[in-house]
């Protein structure tokens, strides 16, 4: 393993971080265009990690140019998100529905609908990837690799900048966590999924905590691995806590969205004079999975807020 780059200039280290992330984005685009298994997810993750690096370590770069590139990447991420979210729903229908013994006919009906939507969403991504907008984004990414626009903190020690910015990311997570009541979130019922305004608010607050945890996790990952390692074990512990928050609240959100989808198909079945029972069974199973996902959140939050990078 290469030695830490603690004393190297932040502009140099974070310029290398950006270049590494850009390469990952470029490498994953062809497979995502071909709609290979998990390729859209991998590309979306690479785009998000690059946006996180730009946001958290922004002082190493020129502010307005960071803002512009993050906006472009957010647009690409939104296009990818349509297809990826449908992939998650499809996988969850099979895993949760199968475990709950939901009749195959009901599962297949939902999956067929999701497959149609996914095909359309992927086609929109392919169209976007060939657009003039994407061409400009690609050119900008290349420019950032060749000559990153450095900012006011570019000459400071990379480790100093990394610690300061990670602590800010933790404070962001702390503010988000203060607005969330995990116990109230865990009390949601199947009926709450499509009738409770309070649940909608709770889900929005949980999503903010999740995003804050993801930011900490991804920003930490960028500075604890070679060839851009500037921080050590305490930062890795911080990143692990952030990852747990991201994963568990992500699983919770996906399960609740599955419950809402199942309820929607149940309503359609009932309107057509069919049995809605299989869809309600899937919704109940999804809510149970959502509750289970929340069990690890309090401990992960405590670890996150008590760890100093």
Automatic annotation (TrEMBL):
SMART domains found in the cross-reference section: CHAD
Highest taxon, organism lineage: Bacteria
Any matching Pfam family: CHAD
CHAD domain: residues covered: 7-306
Protein name according to UniProt: CHAD domain-containing protein
Organism: Isoptericola haloaureus
């Amino acid at each position: 393993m290469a030695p830490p780059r603690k004393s190297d200039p932040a502009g140099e280290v974070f310029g290398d971080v950006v270049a590494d992330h850009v390469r990952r984005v470029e490498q994953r685009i062809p497979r995502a265009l071909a709609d290979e298994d998990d390729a859209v997810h991998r590309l979306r993750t690479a785009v998000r990690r690059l946006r996180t690096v730009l946001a958290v370590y922004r002082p190493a770069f020129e502010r307005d140019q960071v803002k512009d590139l993050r906006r472009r990447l957010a647009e690409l991420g939104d296009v990818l998100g349509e297809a990826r979210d449908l992939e998650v729903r499809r996988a969850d229908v099979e895993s949760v529905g199968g475990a709950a013994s939901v009749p195959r006919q009901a599962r297949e009906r939902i999956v067929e609908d999701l497959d149609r939507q996914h095909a359309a969403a992927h086609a929109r991504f392919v169209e976007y990837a060939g657009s003039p907008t994407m061409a400009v984004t690609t050119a900008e990414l290349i420019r950032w690799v060749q000559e990153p626009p450095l900012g006011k903190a570019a000459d400071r020690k990379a480790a100093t900048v990394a610690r300061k910015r990670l602590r800010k990311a933790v404070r962001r997570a702390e503010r988000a966590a203060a607005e969330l009541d995990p116990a109230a979130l865990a009390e949601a019922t199947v009926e709450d999924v499509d009738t409770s305004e309070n649940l909608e608010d709770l889900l929005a607050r949980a999503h903010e905590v999740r995003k804050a945890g993801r930011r900490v996790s991804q920003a930490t990952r960028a500075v604890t691995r070679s060839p851009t390692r500037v921080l050590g074990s305490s930062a890795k512990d911080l990143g692990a806590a952030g990852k747990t928050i991201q994963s568990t609240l992500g699983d919770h959100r996906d399960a609740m969205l599955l419950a809402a989808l199942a309820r929607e198909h149940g309503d359609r079945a009932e309107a057509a004079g069919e049995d809605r029972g299989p869809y309600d069974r899937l919704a109940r199973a999804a809510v149970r999975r959502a509750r289970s996902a929340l069990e690890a959140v309090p401990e992960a939050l405590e670890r996150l807020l008590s760890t100093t990078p």
